[in-house]
Structures are given as C-alpha cells and as structure tokens.
Design brief:
This protein has nine helices and twelve strands. The chain is globular. A hairpin with a 3-residue loop joins strand 1 and strand 2. The chain has two domains: 105 residues, Phosphorylase Kinase, domain 1 (2-Layer Sandwich); 185 residues, Orthogonal Bundle (Transferase(Phosphotransferase), domain 1), CATH 1.10.510.10. It is of the alpha+beta class. The strands form four sheets. A five-stranded antiparallel β-sheet has the order 1-2-3-5-4, with helices on one face.
C-alpha cells in the first residue's frame, strides 16, 4: 500500500496536539462542574451587588469603562468593581421612552432575562453577577462576567472562517451549555455567533444574552412544543417551524446550534448563498424550503451527520440537546 508522506504525518501530529489541548480544557470544565465545593471567583457577585435589591452606585461601588457595543435600547460597557478590582461587562438598558407601554414592556423583558440568568451556573453559560435599577436616570444595569475574547461573530469578522477542529471544540462547549439551559427548562431562542463569547485565551466559550429566552413548562429532556407564533431571535438562525407560526420547543435551539456551526465554518450566516435582499425574502425561504441551509464543503462525514440530524425539517426528529455530545464527531474530544 501507499506510505504516508512526511507532510501527512506532520499534519496528523499537529491535529493530535490540537485535540489534546482542547481535551484538557474541556476536562477542566467537566471537573469544575463535579467539584461542588469549588468557587469560581470571577462568577461570584462583588460585595453589595444583588438583584434589584441593593444600592450599587456608579462612581462609588463600581466605575464605568469604555463602550463595548450598542443595541436597540441598550449599551454595553466595561465596568470595574472598586473594592475587588473585578472587571465586568455592564449592559445598560434605557427605559426613558415616551410610551409607558414600551417602558413596561422593556422592564418586563429585563426582569424575565434576569430571573432566568440568575439561577444558571455552568462553565459554558455566562453568569449574571447582579442587576440594578437607577430611578434617577431610568436605567437598568445588568452586570455579567467579562469575556475579553469577544464573540465568535467578531472573531469571524476579524480572522475569517474557523478550521473544523476549532469549530468542533466551540460546538461541543455550546452543546454542553445548551443542554444545561434546556435541563433548567429554559429556551434560549437566539443562539448565534454574536451570543457565543470567549475568554482571554479564545478557547473557552460561554453562551450569553438571554433577552429572547423563555421558561418552558414541560420536563427536563423533551422536544415537546411550548410556544406558538412568537418571532424572537435572528432570522437566519431561526428554525422553519418558528417562522411558519407553528408550535415550537427545545428543538428550535438545536436547529440554531447547527446554524452556528455553519457560521463558524464559512464565516457567514446560514442561507447566505441565496443572496436575499431583505428579511422577508429570507423568512419565506427558511419557512418554505424543502432543504436545510447549504452545508460547508469538505467537512468530515461525522460532522455532516451531526448537521443533517440537527437541521431536520421535522422538529421531532432532531436530536435532544442532551444527546449532542454523544455524536461520533465529538468522540476525540471526550474520550
């Protein structure tokens, strides 16, 4: 038979070393979950910061740093706790709008997000440290762990598409975080690269932004439907049943999970090959297309299997989030 060239052998050795690094990081995360007495200092709220129950004042207990980004009703800053020096990300939501109904809607949405996030504690989910309401300037501040690596989407913009080994390491961490979220009866509804944040090493990932999330009524491990007609999230990552106004549940997050993998491997959001000029056209395509979004070329058969299963048009035939980690494509990272 043919002998392997030295280039092939070198590539194989490099792949083994890469996988060993990711295995070590993933094992550390697993060990931290197993140690009940372990204290993750960076995920603990600073002294005096609670959930709408304490006076944690800007300029006194914490200082506002540079602007990190802006949203429709919010701005995100870096913040620093004065007493401990802990760096945080601070999402500030303005509720001083002309419409009272709009104000109440924003307050209700923020309270929902806070109540969902405050109970979560997992290495692959961004921890909420606390929240404050300032009645003088009508601003709600949410304090979360600082993730200096930025988002998967921002890294794709800076460095272009990821190689499959890196994508798989991120995907496995996303799958673990998603499984944990679902086990706590929470539907994320906005999984995308912009909401997957990385630490300073660029190798440890946490799911963020629960602004579109909702509480599920059904059990810990089910693809049963819970919602109908609520269009929340980012269109390119939405499952067909959501856009068709049908009932949906945890399986819509599994579809979005696969879309995140496509985004990582191509550097673009799914369905980009269809060249849609507006959101309505994209919504129609996703809702009516017989086929899933186009898969990247030259990916492994095992990864194709995972993506094909997660992008099944029938929500009931998609795998549960708790089963994603057991796919063959992740075996080299978990064994």
């Amino acid at each position: 038979g043919w002998e392997s060239s030295s280039d092939e052998r070198n590539e194989e050795e490099e792949m083994k070393r890469t996988n060993a690094i990711f295995r070590k990081i993933l094992a550390e995360q697993t060990n931290s979950m197993d140690r009940k007495d372990s204290l993750d200092i960076e995920s603990q709220p600073p002294p005096g910061l609670g959930v709408f129950s304490s006076e944690y004042r800007s300029g006194y207990e914490w200082c506002q740093g540079p602007l990190l980004g802006t949203g429709a009703f919010s701005k995100c800053y870096q913040g620093r706790d004065v007493r401990t020096g802990l760096l945080m990300a601070v999402k500030q939501i303005s509720i001083s709008h002309s419409s009272i109904d709009k104000n109440e809607e924003i307050i209700k949405a923020v309270k929902t997000e806070v109540n969902l996030m405050i109970q979560l504690n997992h290495p692959n989910v961004l921890p909420l440290l606390g929240a404050m309401f300032s009645p003088t300037d009508n601003i709600i501040s949410m304090f979360v762990r600082w993730m200096p690596g930025g988002s998967v989407a921002s890294l794709l913009n800076q460095y272009s598409a990821f190689l499959e080994p890196v994508t798989l390491a991120y995907a496995l961490q996303t799958a673990r975080g998603l499984s944990y979220i679902h086990s706590n009866r929470i539907l994320h509804r906005d999984l995308k690269g912009a909401n997957l944040l990385l630490d300073s090493s660029g190798m440890r990932l946490r799911i963020s932004d629960f602004g579109a999330s909702a509480r599920l009524s059904n059990g810990r491990d089910s693809n049963a439907s819970d919602f109908k007609g609520q269009l929340l999230g980012t269109v390119a990552f939405m499952a067909p049943e959501v856009l068709r106004g049908e009932e949906y549940g945890r399986s819509c997050d599994v579809w979005s999970f696969a879309c995140c993998i496509i985004e990582m491997l191509t550097g673009s959001q799914p369905w980009r090959d269809r060249n849609h000029t507006n959101h309505l056209a994209l919504m129609y395509t996703i809702a009516s297309a017989e086929e899933p979004p186009k898969l990247p070329e030259q990916i492994s058969a095992d990864l194709t299997e995972l993506l094909t299963d997660c992008l099944n048009r029938d929500p009931k035939k998609r795998p549960l989030s708790s089963k994603l980690e057991s796919y063959r494509v992740f075996k080299h990272l978990t064994s």
